[in-house]
């Protein structure tokens, strides 16, 4: 499958949460936010799930660094991205990937807001098709910025190549607080996603950990 190189990035507390029980996800320090903006400037597109748009309302542009804005992509089966979402503010190109379940009304509303609407899949957005489509139109590098549910789908379907996690020296607890990866999970460790440590670095007060995902078809170990 020809798809973009995918980097998953997240800010995470030491107890593995990417937001609190109250939905507060302002985990990273200023230095780390700058790193994320520099990363955005290096990729062609940045992608989030509809849960993140509703909860965080991110702009996903490059503001704390110099560089061009990536294409912003929302994975949103029913096309429920609110019309006043910052991701539709016109400051950069936006794509809303929906399914055949999205109504004509919602699709037209999103197009009227200037977004490109892609219909891929029936139940949930077909991520493989989405990535193939993006690659065909020139997206070589894609930054996945969450949240937990989309992270799970992307990892479980082996569509992530690299993981960058900024571990913040904070603990927030809460059984219902979102963790880095949610979804249904696997029963055996052997069935999980296996990673290879690449590097560690202090960024502000955070510890930036970088891993490579093992076992992908483009992985030299599998050739
Ligand atoms: N700290 C950080 O770095 C960081 C970054 C981002 C987000 N967050 C946090 O993460 C939380 C949001 O995570 P979330 O899990 O609720 O939502 P999410 O992962 O952002 O979005 C998940 C939603 O995307 C839609 N979707 C459509 N096709 C999909 C597919 N193939 N696979 C997976 N999802 C698909 C589904 O909704 P539909 O069926 O309605 O389409 C699904 O419920 C928020 O609390 C936010 O603050 C933290």
From TrEMBL:
State the SUPFAM superfamilies in the record: Dihydrofolate reductase-like
Keywords assigned: NADP, Oxidoreductase, Riboflavin biosynthesis
Renumbered to this chain, the signal peptide range is: none
Q: Which GO terms describe its biological process?
A: riboflavin biosynthetic process
Q: EC number(s) per UniProt?
A: 1.1.1.302
Q: Which reactions are catalysed by this chain?
A: 2,5-diamino-6-(1-D-ribitylamino)pyrimidin-4(3H)-one 5'-phosphate + NAD(+) = 2,5-diamino-6-(1-D-ribosylamino)pyrimidin-4(3H)-one 5'-phosphate + NADH + H(+); 2,5-diamino-6-(1-D-ribitylamino)pyrimidin-4(3H)-one 5'-phosphate + NADP(+) = 2,5-diamino-6-(1-D-ribosylamino)pyrimidin-4(3H)-one 5'-phosphate + NADPH + H(+)
**What superkingdom does the record give?**
Archaea
Q: Locate the transmembrane regions by residue number.
A: none
Q: Which Pfam families match?
A: RibD_C
Residue limits of the Bacterial bifunctional deaminase-reductase C-terminal domain? 4-208
Q: Which Gene3D superfamilies match?
A: Dihydrofolate Reductase, subunit A (3.40.430.10)
Gene Ontology MF term list: 5-amino-6-(5-phosphoribosylamino)uracil reductase activity; NADP binding
**Which InterPro entries does the protein's record reference?**
DHFR-like_dom_sf (IPR024072), Rib_reduct_arc (IPR006401), RibD_C (IPR011549), RibDG_C (IPR002734), Riboflavin_Biosynth_HTPR (IPR050765)
The metabolic or biological pathway listed in the UniProt record of this protein is: Cofactor biosynthesis; riboflavin biosynthesis
By sequence similarity, the record places it as follows:
Belongs to the HTP reductase family.
How is this protein organized at the quaternary level?
Homodimer.
Q: Would you tell me the protein name for this molecule? A: 2,5-diamino-6-(ribosylamino)-4(3H)-pyrimidinone 5'-phosphate reductase
